[in-house]
Amino acid sequence: QVQLVESGGGLVQAGGSLRLSCGAFGRTFTTMGWFRQAPGKEREFVAAISWRGSSTSYADSVKGRFTISRDNAKNTEYLQMNSLKPDDTGVYYCAARNRFGRSDSIDDPEYNYWGQGTQVTVSA
Predict the structure, then answer these.
(1) Whole-angstrom distance, CA of residue 30 vs CA of residue 54
(2) Residue 95 · residue 122 · CB < 8 Å
(3) CB 120 within 8 A of CB 89
(4) How far apart are alpha carbons 94 and 110 in whole angstroms?
(5) Alpha-carbon dihedral 18, 83, 86, 67, rounded to 10 degrees
(6) 78 bridge partner residues
(7) CA distances to 23, 34, 52, 65 from 48, in Å
(8) Which residues, in sequence order, are CB contacts of 21 under 8 Å at separation 6+?
(9) Which of 12, 52, 65, 71, CA to CA, is 20 to 30 A from 33?
């Protein structure tokens, strides 16, 4: 059974940091990403990383503050979030896809697998 399991969310004051983790079980993935959904808003892209980690992409709102990484030996991706703002509050979702043997652009917005989400709350 394929599963993505997020962890590391919590409550933090503005200016603080959190590190999210996403463990992938059941298969390996090419591109992995993070999305978030704030209350009353649509889910939005946060960051993505290629299979070897050589390519990354970030939403403008998090550039310079968030860093995505992955450890393929552990089948895990991470999102280091620094200088957090109240606007970063939301449920953060891990996403992944498997396109081994096919082209896989990091900018492609389609993902096949999703985690259950982890809550991040940033207080002012």
Answers:
(1) 12
(2) no
(3) yes
(4) 13
(5) -60
(6) 21, 69
(7) 15, 6, 12, 14
(8) 6, 7, 8, 76, 77, 78
(9) 12
- The residues, any chain, with a CB within 8 Å of residue 121's CB and separated by 6 or more, are 10, 11, 12, 89
pLDDT at 101: 84
Amino acid (one-letter) located at 1: Q
Query: DSSP per residue over the chain, as a string?
Result: --EEEEE--EEEETT--EEEEEEEESS--SSEEEEEE-TTS--EEEEEE-TTS--EEE-TTTTTTEEEEEETTTTEEEEEE-S--GGG-EEEEEEE---TTS---TT----SEE---EEEEEE-
Residue 119 CA to chain centroid, in angstroms? Answer: 12
| Tens digit of each residue's pLDDT (9 = 90 or more) over 13-33 | 999 999 999 999 998 899 999
Query: Which of 122, 119, 84 is closest to 9 using CA atoms?
Result: 119
Report d(CA 68, CA 79) in Å as an integer. Answer: 5
Q: Where do we find the tokens 């892209």? A: 45
